């Protein structure tokens, strides 16, 4: 624990900052595949009962047409955020008819690539841009990648807290720059320590062999007749089987400040890449990718955490950041826990709050190149070998046992948790840290270990295990009783979103070519 961390924790326990600390905002985006009752990828379009994927703020699709995404508002009370997510799951689960929600991050048994549908958002210009962007991902990375699911966790500190820290620390930066600088510092610490999240919450140690059709040279081991795994893996989803690209190999922003982050992504969006140039932007007169550059748009840069700001209509994320700085961070590395109906629970959420506050308050020096490589290596070693009791990570130029470093980190995170508990008059944050310490002391409690143990004990393939969990969760959702006014809210949102999509499609707009040119060059 640094002196800066100790000083900041003392400040946060003063009356005004402590009251503000209870106003941190938490939001969740949960992805999950629609599947048939037999465990196959759903081939049906986005269900109309769920509204328009383009304009419904709570229920949309991500990459594949079958990959649903549920979005909660950002709320001060973590329990309220989870209740909102639970209501969405119940509404969707009760309206999917013969389909289920897949319980795991790694996908079900997949058909050949041409039979994996790409998400479609209608004929409006904005809807077509979303669809074409996903076509571009398909030609660059394959459609199989579009079936991976995860949990995104959004977190922000109260805006009113930054002026207090700014004044106490006598910063000479403009307040807006100071706030962004502190979020970038949080992200740097997240890069240092996010291996811990993969160890504690990684839940994808195995996958179905159909996922490997594009990866003949993979290093996975056969688990059974149709499953592959790594014995000590925690999260194959976050390994080099995920969204990886030679084009992006040199694109590793290490977050010195917001402007260099924005500039690096802006440059990638404008820099041609020969392999993509050979593909072109159109085939038989139809758009197949938005451009032939390293990135089509900034969202294509796949990172475990992103700086974010709520966008205005027609604004891209990078433009919002340039306009007004960082408003919150989006954690993108969390696996879906197949033992939890929502894919995440209260204990995990309260731990993430504590971990992110620790990252925000701890001292965060700039990352030099060798450190950047070490942090990446630590992360990748953990997702592939995290449960190896002899695994060593690189810490300040030395090698340390993962479990020893994990215990030391949890000790510091516990201090942040105690302050959050004091602010919210609860003990949930501290108990969440103790639950993680139990996992370190008994690795059989790790989600990745529980997945492998369940497969072994039940004689189940990965697909059979995940389908079993999907059916259990489906029964759980069907037995949830939604208040009539809550059901009506979802019905109304669906109807309004369909009407809004039709309005966009009926409105006069420039040609698709003109719209894309403006969107890309915006």
UniProtKB/TrEMBL annotation:
Its EC number is 6.3.2.2. Keywords: ATP-binding, Glutathione biosynthesis, Ligase, Nucleotide-binding. It holds the Pfam family Glu_cys_ligase. Pathway: Sulfur metabolism; glutathione biosynthesis; glutathione from L-cysteine and L-glutamate: step 1/2. It is an enzyme of class 6 (ligase). It comes from the Bacteria. InterPro entries: Gln_synth/guanido_kin_cat_dom, Glu_cys_ligase, Glut_cys_ligase. SUPFAM superfamilies: Glutamine synthetase/guanido kinase (SSF55931). It catalyses: L-cysteine + L-glutamate + ATP = gamma-L-glutamyl-L-cysteine + ADP + phosphate + H(+). The keyword Ligase applies. GO terms for cellular component: cytosol. GO terms for biological process: glutathione biosynthetic process. PANTHER family: GLUTAMATE--CYSTEINE LIGASE. Belongs to the glutamate--cysteine ligase type 1 family. Type 1 subfamily. This is Glutamate--cysteine ligase. It comes from Entomomonas moraniae.
